[in-house]
Amino acid sequence: MHDPYKEALWASGFTGGEGPRYLQIVKFLEHAIAQGSLRAGDRLPAQRRLAELLGIDLTTVTRGFAEARRRQLIEARGTLGTFIAAPKVELTQSVDLSMNIPPPPADVDMEALLRQGMSQVLMRTDTDLLMTYHLSGGSSVDRRAGAQWLKPMLGHVDTERVVACPGAQSALAALILALTQPDDVILMEPLGYPGMPMAVEQLGRRIETVAVDEHGMRPDSLESACQRYNARVVYLNPTLQNPTTHTMPEKRRLEIARVVERLNVKIIEDDPYWLLAKDAPPPFARLIPARVFYISTLSKCLSPGLRTAFVAFPDMESQHAFLSALRTFSLTSPLTTTLVTQWIHDGSAALLLAGVQAESRARQRMATGTLSGATSGTVNHGIHVWLTLPSYWRAADLCAAARAEGLVVAPSSAFYRGHNPPNAIRISLGRCRGREQLDAALRKLSSLLAQKPPVSHELVI
């Protein structure tokens, strides 16, 4: 049996800027296993010995081994030592490519960020205040953090015009209540975030769609729809749109803005992916701030566990109406909001965002390199791709076939308002914890796409 015990030859040396050393140990193991220099059953040096060989402290090795065990790379066998684990066969686990969440950054120590952030929160904040009810909107400190978070998108924003709320979905529901009356129509594109029409219909309003072209919502169609339905609110997700990944160019945004101003219409701008896009056009809230209610959630570019979104308002009157609506069904979570505020002020949020951006780019390259026909926008930085299917596959059939292979993807019908949705699927890239799992899932999906659907031989009686 191959014995690497004498020297840790599989550890190729630490590199600055490649993340925490304990995670680099895990990367060394993954690389060695992939290359075959470490095989199932190989015994690793004792942790203390490995620390000596690598010139690092024992705690770093212990954390590295703990993470490697969690990833099922190694296994402990009591007094015999630690060994490379045999590959685990999981017959029932599905790989979820349907949920849009940011990927875990490979080079960011999330555990350390949480520990440090919560330590600072507990040090600077009264525990009783963290564990009680808070009125929605956030403290003045939270709002200053929100203004800082929004600065790349909107430039300087008055702190008074920013509120913090528990996620984008609650913000959308409160805006629907604040800006419309029962039976009012809200306009959106035919393909869009399914949570919006769900909230609209549950709250007794109606959704009508506006025609689009290759640049997004058409200005002439928007004007006609506003007049036909007497609509005064339009919902837009203009950057790395969900699900199509399309980014509306600035010229079209300006054309839409002129229609909105002329007809006295308001825009709910849901912009969760702007910070993931490269050279994204300015948001509508920067072009016509007096007409736009701008939502930026941290769930799509940092972590869904933070459950925090910031909303910028055009005026104080509409903000008061929004907060009154929000308080009818939701209160701010002080613990997570305070953590978000701490991370924004101490730079941890920027560090995490940079990690998500880098990981998203890497996963986009994997997806577009593996899946012929995948569309991920012109910037290739988002967390999902939109795949137009070959003519011999229908989206519903492909989703069923993928599920039989242990893959879950989202059909276009989940996002489409109307009849005859496009023959396409959305593939989300963030749920897989590691690139290895994602690569295997994408290759399996690519192989499935290359095959024609099986011919049904069901007996008809």
UniProtKB/TrEMBL annotation:
<dbReference type="InterPro" id="IPR036390">
    <property type="entry name" value="WH_DNA-bd_sf"/>
</dbReference>
<dbReference type="InterPro" id="IPR015424">
    <property type="entry name" value="PyrdxlP-dep_Trfase"/>
</dbReference>
<keyword id="KW-0032">Aminotransferase</keyword>
<dbReference type="Pfam" id="PF00392">
    <property type="entry name" value="GntR"/>
</dbReference>
<keyword id="KW-0805">Transcription regulation</keyword>
<protein>
    <submittedName>
        <fullName>Histidinol-phosphate aminotransferase</fullName>
        <ecNumber>2.6.1.9</ecNumber>
    </submittedName>
</protein>
<dbReference type="InterPro" id="IPR036388">
    <property type="entry name" value="WH-like_DNA-bd_sf"/>
</dbReference>
<dbReference type="GO" id="GO:0004400">
    <property type="term" value="F:histidinol-phosphate transaminase activity"/>
</dbReference>
<keyword id="KW-0804">Transcription</keyword>
<dbReference type="Pfam" id="PF00155">
    <property type="entry name" value="Aminotran_1_2"/>
</dbReference>
<feature type="domain" description="HTH gntR-type">
    <location>
        <begin position="19"/>
        <end position="87"/>
    </location>
</feature>
<comment type="similarity">
    <text>In the C-terminal section; belongs to the class-I pyridoxal-phosphate-dependent aminotransferase family.</text>
</comment>
<keyword id="KW-0663">Pyridoxal phosphate</keyword>
<dbReference type="InterPro" id="IPR004839">
    <property type="entry name" value="Aminotransferase_I/II_large"/>
</dbReference>
<keyword id="KW-0238">DNA-binding</keyword>
<dbReference type="InterPro" id="IPR015421">
    <property type="entry name" value="PyrdxlP-dep_Trfase_major"/>
</dbReference>
<dbReference type="InterPro" id="IPR000524">
    <property type="entry name" value="Tscrpt_reg_HTH_GntR"/>
</dbReference>
<dbReference type="InterPro" id="IPR051446">
    <property type="entry name" value="HTH_trans_reg/aminotransferase"/>
</dbReference>
<keyword id="KW-0808">Transferase</keyword>
